[in-house]
């Protein structure tokens, strides 16, 4: 969690607000990858696509 905190502090200090949607998209993709590896949740995720 320290890395995420540093990234968000960097965004706030340098006012590079265009990085926020990029980070949110990457976090969403990472969440989908983690959840799709679970055998109980995977069928529900595959129905989305």
Automatic annotation (TrEMBL):
UniProt superkingdom: Bacteria
Pfam families associated with the record: DUF5989
InterPro entries named among the record's database cross-references: DUF5989
Name of the protein described by the UniProt record: ABC transporter permease
């Amino acid at each position: 969690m320290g890395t995420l905190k540093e990234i968000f502090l960097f965004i706030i200090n340098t006012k590079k607000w265009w990085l926020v949607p990029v980070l949110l998209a990457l976090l969403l993709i990472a969440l989908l990858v983690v959840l799709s590896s679970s055998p109980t949740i995977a069928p529900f995720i595959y129905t989305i696509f």
